[in-house]
Amino acid sequence: xxxxxxxxxxxxxxxxxxxxxxxxxxxxxxxxxxxxxxxxxxxxxxxxxxxxxxxxxxxxxxxxxxxxxxxxxxxxxxxxxxxxxxxxxxxxxxxxxxxxxxxxxxxxxxxxxxxxxxxxxxxxxxxxxxxxxxxxxxxxxxxxxx
Length: 146
What we know:
Oligomer: single chain
Mean pLDDT: 78
Number of strands: 0
Order of helices and strands: HHH
Helix content: over 70%
Number of domains: 1
């Protein structure tokens, strides 16, 4: 205020300087006890917030850990199912090979024994045949081998 010159100073500069001054030393808080009380309240609130945050974080960690354990169990179950299915696929592929070999033997037998049966009555097992057809052919081959 001592340096105020109406020609070179303006109201905006004055307000700016007053705000800057009051930020550092407010005229109504000269009492150090009041400042101390305000700071203590602020620190207490910060600690309370940190404690609540810590409790919430711990709860979320427990929840996510439980979910992680559940997902690991599901993964293990899926891995087991995949292994089982892969084993089943291998068995089925071997069975298809066996049935094709039996089919070839049956066709050869029918060609050699044309008088007894006609090859046109035999359905050749293809890759798209159903399991029931495979079982029927398997039983028919067992009858032939006897």
